Amino acid sequence: MLDVAIYPVGIDLRVDHIYSLLSVGSDDVRIIEIWGMGRIGKTTIAKAVYNLIFHNIEGSSFLENVSEVSQQRNGLVQLQGRLLLDILMRSGFKISNIARGINLTRERLCYRRVLLILDDVDEMDQLKALAREHNWFGPGSRIIITTRDDHLLDVFQVDKKYKVKQLNHNESLELFSWHAFKSNHPIEGYVNLSNRVLHYIRGLLLALEILGYSLLDRISEWETILEKLENIPPDQV
């Protein structure tokens, strides 16, 4: 099980929608794209989906921060090795280069029903190295890709797309309050400041969590902190 969120406000409805797109139980290989702006909660939602279905799969792998890892020395080779280790539950694969990793992935996984989540993809080379074709994976496999760039996958064989939308006002207020006040609503005297936070964050799930947590036990400093933050785009919080 992956750690998802302490306060999973607004998660269940989005997970249910993605689950319906996956058609778990059918024998086709299905690739789903989850896309949206930064800090909106794509990774959190993908983790919740993973937890919902991984136990019905022969092998599973959640490759987090694909963009960041792929920029490291031999990053894509590292990711290929992690993918095989996670799903086959064995090490010792000698992957000397990306082409070798592609061949191993295709040979070893084409008969296995797998769940693979590629988190934060931003280059086609990452997809080509890790999940280029449906037939790399066995019947019933599900591949989920999270990305900020919807157009990145226009030339990729994605079966379904899901755009993550911002939390609505009530969801945002509840999530922020849990992190900032340890309650499902603002404490007395801080409703206006809380609404100011919501106006700034604009329903970005992860940003609400980060900002709410950072303001916990610092209520007296809110005015000063908010004045500084309002000069920073919310997806960079």
From TrEMBL:
Protein name as catalogued: NB-ARC domain-containing protein
Domain (NB-ARC): residue spans on this chain: 15-183
UniProt xrefs under InterPro entries: Apaf_helical, Disease_R_plants, NB-ARC, P-loop_NTPase
GO molecular function (one): ADP binding
PANTHER family reported for this sequence: DISEASE RESISTANCE PROTEIN (TIR-NBS-LRR CLASS) FAMILY, LEUCINE-RICH REPEAT-CONTAINING PROTEIN
GO biological process: defense response
A family per Pfam: NB-ARC
